[in-house]
């Protein structure tokens, strides 16, 4: 075997070994080991001393929240369908937090395990200073049907929003965006629509509540203790769920 062939063989073998190691780490969700190794002893401009070689806690949080989420699914090709479904969420919030830290290994000396904690929280109606009463619905799935034969002849998207969500109790229809051409209409047309708002409040619909949820909070927390060596088999992850 020539020298060039030997180099090619060794480099190809090491490449396959590295790829296999990365694949094994991904299968076992070992994402923090390489990151913790990179920050060990790291010098930061904001600190007068380097980070410790072990024990640093890494992590982050992500949170999404809003006032209302509203979705109307029409049984047909457009707004003129005779029936549709409304999916409504009031004050939804979802938060995800994770942290990882190296700790002394319980199986081998001079090696470090990685302890990972992940928390997922989902809530409805818990953002206000005064939480909503339990009998108030914070999420609903409703079926609406038009009782008249012919659909209305609205010309703007805002009017169709009011028409579709007229019987909803938790959707803030007035917060829906308007098209540019609607904002450029004359004041007389705007006053005309406001005078007709009472008609939109009673569009002669039949409303059926299929599903409803009160204010609640769902808390999901997982803890992983990952050994210094990659296990041969995929382990199980235990988690706990609590609803308030």
From TrEMBL:
Ranges of Polar residues composition bias in the record: 192-201
Compositionally biased spans, kind Basic and acidic residues: 181-191
InterPro entries hit by this protein: BLTP1, BLTP1_C
Residue ranges annotated for the Bridge-like lipid transfer protein family member 1 C-terminal domain, each copy included: 1-244
Pfam families (alphabetical): BLTP1_C (PF25040)
Top-level taxon in the UniProt lineage: Eukaryota
GO biological process: synaptic vesicle endocytosis
A GO term from the CC aspect: presynapse
Stretches for region Disordered: 181-204
Name of the protein described by the UniProt record: Bridge-like lipid transfer protein family member 1 C-terminal domain-containing protein
The species this protein was found in: Timema monikensis
């Amino acid at each position: 075997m020539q020298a060039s062939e030997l180099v090619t063989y060794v480099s190809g073998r090491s490449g396959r070994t590295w790829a296999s190691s990365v694949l094994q780490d991904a299968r076992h969700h070992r994402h923090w080991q390489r990151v913790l190794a990179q920050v060990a002893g790291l010098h930061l401009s904001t600190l007068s001393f380097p980070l410790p070689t072990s024990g640093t806690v890494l992590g982050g949080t992500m949170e999404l929240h809003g006032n209302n989420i509203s979705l109307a699914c029409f049984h047909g090709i457009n707004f003129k369908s005779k029936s549709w479904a409304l999916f409504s969420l009031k004050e939804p919030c979802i938060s995800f937090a994770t942290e990882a830290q190296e700790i002394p290994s319980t199986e081998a000396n001079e090696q470090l395990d990685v302890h990972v904690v992940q928390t997922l929280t989902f809530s409805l109606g818990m953002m206000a200073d005064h939480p909503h009463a339990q009998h108030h619905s914070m999420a609903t799935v409703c079926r609406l049907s038009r009782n008249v034969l012919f659909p209305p002849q609205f010309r703007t998207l805002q009017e169709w929003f009011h028409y579709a969500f007229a019987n909803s109790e938790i959707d803030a229809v007035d917060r829906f965006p308007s098209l540019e051409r609607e904002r450029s209409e004359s004041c007389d047309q705007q006053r005309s629509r406001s005078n007709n708002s009472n008609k939109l409040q009673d569009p002669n619909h039949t409303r059926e509540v299929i599903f409803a949820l009160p204010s609640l909070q769902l808390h999901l927390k997982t803890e992983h203790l990952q050994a210094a060596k990659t296990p041969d088999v995929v382990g199980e992850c235990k988690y706990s769920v609590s609803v308030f």
